[in-house]
């Protein structure tokens, strides 16, 4: 304490005050801060942020004032007792420059300090999450973002419920650290992992750690490059190194090298959504399941009646009821079976959509040239409208079995969907009133070959379903649209070729 007091009062030599108490002490502080925040000594980012902020605040608010006040007084004392004034005055000038530099440093580093404060004290930018047990206490359901603290809450729930066998991960992702902590918990407890809605970004590391991994039909996994999550984006955050850590986790879990090499190719503001076939082939997913088998929805009687009323009032289903009563009866039976099984809304829509597709397969080849062309024009319009919202929606609408189905009404307005409903009505009515010739297969196939040649390299986007990013999804959507447009361009062959296509769907 006496030493601290003597420096503060300027009683130490100028050399000691400058070289030991300023220069050397600053090196020690910087070295300590760097070691604690960059050498992996503290794994938890919140704890690391608290340590870093504490050191920075103490250094700036306590140590630095003690250093410069004591050094200034030592310089004054040196001037008073010595005839040599150049060095002490130079030191005083350096102190002024140091204060100006420190103020600028704080100003420029303020975004990083703000980020550290938010992390240290739990001011989250990641969406909130919820945790609950399924009704049979067999699974934990995690829904929401991977914010700081989620792994601790899952750990606590596992301690309270040792009978848990797996975890449902429905998450947009979040903190990389939390994804890894969940992965360790899952691996240690040998839990199975499920997703019924989707598991993206950092959630993937937790999902892949499951002993058996289940993907519900209609759900997705999504991957992209990591980002620091800090507005300041400090240079000491090595995201490539962080990605390599998680590549190792996927490799350990038996995922193919081809898949692992693609995981982080897509930009952090984009998303790679592999197809179902890619996920199964690469070993990321072991089993496909229905969401209701994992997380059944407990529909109240009132909700069931509302769903039935909404379905039965839907114009397309009213048309089916009028013109295809047998199919409509099967559809209602399917609806009741899904409701009893606890199917979610998307499952119900997907199941009923198969009946609409069944009607389309039956009636489109039999309807008039005008009706089949109009149906395809409205299909193009729907695809274009979805692509404007998000190209991924267009791909999901085109290939639901590989990329998951969507509820179009969540993304398009009633006025946008109305022309398609009218087109379906026209298809049904004119299929009853029109006699059309059999499909001229040689002519249709010959024109199809011409269309494929005109598509050129874009045909790859229709046949492979091997997309990497939003740009690829947009190209694939545009390729499908152009395919239909090229067919419509030939007035003589378009209806015949479309009948061939829809008869073989």
Q: How would you sum up this structure, described in words?
A:
The model has no long low-confidence stretch (mean pLDDT 88). This protein has 505 residues and is an alpha/beta fold. The protein folds into 3 domains: 2-120, no CATH class; 129-294, 2-enoyl-CoA Hydratase, Chain A, domain 1; 301-503, no CATH class. The chain has a 6-stranded mixed sheet. It has helices at residues 2-8, 14-38, 45-81, 86-120, 150-160, 176-189, 203-208, 239-252, 257-262, 276-282, 291-294, 301-313, 315-323, 325-341, 345-363, 369-389, 391-398, 400-403, 414-433, 441-455, 459-463, 470-489, 494-503, and strands spanning 129-133, 139-144, 166-170, 192-195, 199-200, 213-216, 221-222, 287-289. Helix content is 65%, strand content 6%.
Kindly list the characteristics that best describe this protein.
two-stranded parallel ribbon, 505 residues, elongated, 8 strands, 2-enoyl-CoA Hydratase, Chain A, domain 1, 3 domains
Radius of gyration equals 32 Å
The multimeric state of the shown protein is: single chain
Secondary structural class: alpha/beta
Helix content: 55-70%
Strand content: 5-15%
Number of DSSP helices? Answer: 23
In order across it, which strands form the biggest sheet?
Answer: 1-2-3-4-6-8
Q: Largest sheet, described in full?
A: 6 strands, mixed
- Mean pLDDT equals 88
Number of domains: 3
Unreliable parts: none
Shape: elongated
The total count of strands amounts to 8
CA(first)-CA(last) distance = 86 Å
Summarize the structure.
The chain has 505 residues and is of the alpha/beta class. The chain is built from 23 helices and eight strands.
């Amino acid at each position: 304490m006496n030493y601290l007091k003597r420096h503060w009062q300027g009683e130490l030599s100028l050399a000691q005050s400058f070289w030991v108490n300023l220069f050397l002490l600053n090196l020690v502080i910087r070295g300590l801060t760097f070691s604690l925040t960059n050498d992996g000594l503290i794994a938890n980012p919140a704890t690391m942020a608290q340590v870093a902020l504490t050191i920075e605040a103490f250094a700036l608010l306590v140590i630095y004032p003690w250093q410069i006040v004591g050094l200034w007084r030592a310089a004054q004392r040196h001037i008073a007792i010595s005839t040599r004034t150049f060095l002490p005055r130079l030191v005083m000038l350096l102190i002024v420059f140091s204060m100006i530099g420190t103020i600028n440093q704080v100003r420029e580093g303020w975004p990083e300090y703000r980020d550290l404060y938010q992390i240290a004290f739990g001011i989250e930018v990641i969406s909130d999450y919820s945790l609950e047990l399924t009704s049979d206490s067999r699974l934990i359901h995690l829904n929401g973002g991977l914010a700081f603290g989620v792994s601790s809450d899952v750990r606590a729930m596992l301690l309270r419920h040792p009978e848990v066998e797996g975890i449902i991960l429905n998450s947009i992702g979040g903190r990389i650290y939390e994804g890894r902590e969940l992965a360790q918990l899952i691996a240690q407890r040998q839990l199975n992992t499920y997703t019924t809605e989707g598991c993206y970004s950092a959630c993937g590391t937790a999902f892949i750690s499951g002993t058996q991994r289940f993907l519900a039909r209609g759900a997705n996994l999504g991957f992209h490059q990591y980002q620091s999550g800090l507005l300041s984006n400090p240079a000491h955050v090595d995201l490539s190194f962080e990605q390599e850590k998680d590549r190792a986790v996927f490799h350990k879990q038996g995922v193919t090298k081809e898949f692992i090499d693609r995981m982080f190719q897509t930009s952090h503001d984009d998303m790679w959504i592999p197809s179902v076939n890619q996920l199964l082939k690469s070993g990321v997913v072991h089993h496909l399941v229905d969401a209701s088998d994992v997380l059944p929805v407990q529909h109240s009687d009132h909700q069931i009646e509302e769903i039935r009323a909404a379905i039965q009032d839907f114009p397309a289903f009213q048309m089916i009821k009028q013109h295809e009563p047998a199919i409509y009866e099967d559809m209602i039976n399917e609806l009741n079976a899904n409701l009893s099984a606890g199917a979610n809304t998307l499952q119900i829509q997907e199941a009923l959509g198969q009946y609409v597709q069944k009607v389309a397969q039956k009636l489109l080849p039999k309807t008039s040239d005008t009706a089949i062309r109009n149906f395809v024009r409205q299909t193009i319009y729907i695809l274009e409208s979805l692509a404007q919202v998000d190209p991924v929606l267009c791909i999901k609408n085109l290939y639901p079995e590989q990329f998951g189905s969507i509820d179009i009404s969540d993304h398009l307005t009633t006025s946008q969907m109305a022309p398609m409903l009218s087109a379906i009505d026209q298809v049904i009515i004119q299929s009853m009133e029109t006699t059309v010739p059999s499909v001229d297969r040689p002519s249709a196939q010959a024109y199809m070959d011409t269309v494929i040649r005109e598509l050129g390299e874009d045909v790859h986007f229709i046949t492979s379903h091997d997309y990497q990013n939003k740009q690829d999804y947009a190209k694939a959507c545009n390729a499908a649209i152009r395919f239909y447009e090229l067919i419509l361009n030939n007035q003589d062959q378009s209806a015949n070729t479309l009948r061939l296509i829809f008869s073989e769907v």
